Amino acid sequence: MHNVRKIVDDLYWVGANDRRLTLFENIHPIPRGVSYNSYLLLDKKTVLFDTVDWSVARHLIENIEYLLDGRELDYLVINHMEPDHAASIEEITLRYPKVTVISTEKAFYLMHQFGFKLENIKKEEVKEGDTKKFGKHEVVFIEAPMVHWPEAMVTLDTTNGVLFSADAFGSFISLDGKLFNDEVNFDRDWIDEARRYYTNIVGKYGPHVQHLLKKAAGAPITTFCPLHGPVWRTDLGYLLDKYDKWSRYEPEEKGIVLAYASMYGNTEAAADLLASKLVQKGITNIKMYDVSSTHVSYLISDVFKYSHLILACPTYNLGIYPVMHNFIMDMKALNLQKRTVAILENGSWACKSGSLIQEIFETELKDMNVLNEKVTLTSATNSVNVDEMDALVDALVESFKK
Ligand code: FEO
Known about the structure:
Elements (H helix, E strand, L loop, with lengths): L4 E4 L2 E3 L2 E3 L4 E2 L3 E2 L4 E3 L2 E4 L3 E4 L7 H12 L6 E3 L5 H4 L2 H7 L4 E4 L1 H9 L8 E4 L5 E3 L4 E6 L9 E5 L4 E5 L19 H16 L4 H11 L6 E4 L9 H13 L4 E8 L5 H15 L5 E5 L5 H10 E11 L2 E2 L1 H12 L6 E7 L6 H11 L5 E2 L4 E3 L5 H18 L2
Parallel strand pairs: 8-9, 9-10, 10-11, 15-16, 17-18, 17-19, 19-21, 21-22, 21-23
Antiparallel strand pairs: 1-2, 2-7, 3-6, 4-5, 7-8, 12-13, 13-14, 14-15, 19-20
Helix pairs in contact: 5-9, 6-7, 9-10
The chain binds MU-OXO-diiron (FEO).
MU-OXO-diiron binds next to helix 2.
């Protein structure tokens, strides 16, 4: 049975939700599901904007068949070729062989690489600034490389200001019947998952997102139609502000992510003591995580949100404790920068983790301010460590004033 929703005159959401997938991209947990959004324009010509993951292709087909009501599908616009959206392209072309597929040169190349059999299908290659009229609706194609793959583009309907924004402005979480941003409490229920989606999926490409935001700045946009999550028809500035901060690697809030790893509880106890001292000095905005039991995507999301980071971990095989090393490498891969970093290290003999962490942050990540006031445990907290912690807390309090 079809399940569609009208967005504006002539335009419908024809996507579907997936609550059975546990790991998005087979990496990131999605305990609240995800939506794959696809949009159908019914004008003089009929136009489908992107498809969906193969797992929900049947729902897409039912929705399109219902709305087309016997009409042909004239165009399929592919803004983004990643298989969570593009997996059903071939199915659409098999069912609607007269369709013309519109996309970028790189996207057609990727379709070929993925093995889609489109030899007998009409194709129209578009580039930055090209326009196309479908009847009363006219669109302009805007290239958006690396948001999130190199072939990506966004499409703006200049008739009504609807922006088909591909991965930009998307989010994890299934829609649960609520399609529009004003049908959910986004700031309460969605923002953490939207941030986790952006930072882990697109976070590395902040300069490319900035480039797209600048190109879109002057456009009369009324609606964001992303490929995941709610359609935005009010308060676009709220999300634009978040995207601007995330893509410039500026924190949203002054606060501390205290991420610890602990083999026998002693590093954890030290992290607890440090947190307690911080709170008593007035720093209460602290998020504490056990890196061993927290998926790294959640850690990444919060280090993009907060201004400060404390890393606490043992030495392991003369190196950084592996789960902490993985977290640090993920921060590096995702281009995190402009944070103040404090270190608490532990080592029962040959303590190395702190100096190795400091070296990575100072030489491999950008614009990181590593505080000199380090805490060095030799197995468990001793009286010297208490003094080191007090000095570190004073340094963090000072840096919060800036
Ligand atoms: Fe939802 Fe880059 O794909």
